[in-house]
Amino acid sequence: MDPFDDPGGLDDTGVLRVRHGVERRILSAFRAYGADPRVGAAARALSLAGEHGALWLAAGFAGAAVDGARRGAWLRGTALTAGAHAVSMGVKRVVRRPRPAHVEPLVRTAGHYSFPSSHATSAAAAAMAFGALGACGAGRGRLPAARAARLLPPLAVAMCLSRLVVGVHYPSDVAAGVALGALTARFGARWMRGGAHD
Description:
Layout: H1 15-33, H2 37-49, H3 54-66, H4 71-95, H5 118-137, H6 143-165, H7 171-187, H8 189-193
Helix pairs in contact: 2-6, 3-4, 4-5, 4-7, 5-6, 5-7
């Protein structure tokens, strides 16, 4: 039996059982915050905006539209974000971890699998890619785009936490998504910088 599907599942040392129990408790604590109507509504809105990476793709295209001097870099960052999301979907189909069943979700999900969180993957990739553009654009006549890009990392953190508040991912799903998104952005950084002056 899959220890992720069965909270009582054990390996030889009992590590999976303990870890899964801790994850369930952490998720339950975050999900409890969603009982506040304002928190629940904000988490649902973030989750909806992040579906299929929509928020981050829109941010990338907007950056390309307003920052013509670095349009190529913005578009490359958008492509990296989309690529990270696609990879996460592929990993989900390999791992096939079921979504949490011990809490009532606040949102519907596009798929049945939980690991990794694709919302977290695309959020982390966008935060790194577009955040770098914001950092290197400051003080160089690109203030609107740079300011907007610097807002994306905290928004990405909120996006990741929202997936716990709405009760559709375990903490390790989100952590794995962040790691995958960050790695994708890091590996693509040189390619993205090649378009920094397009």
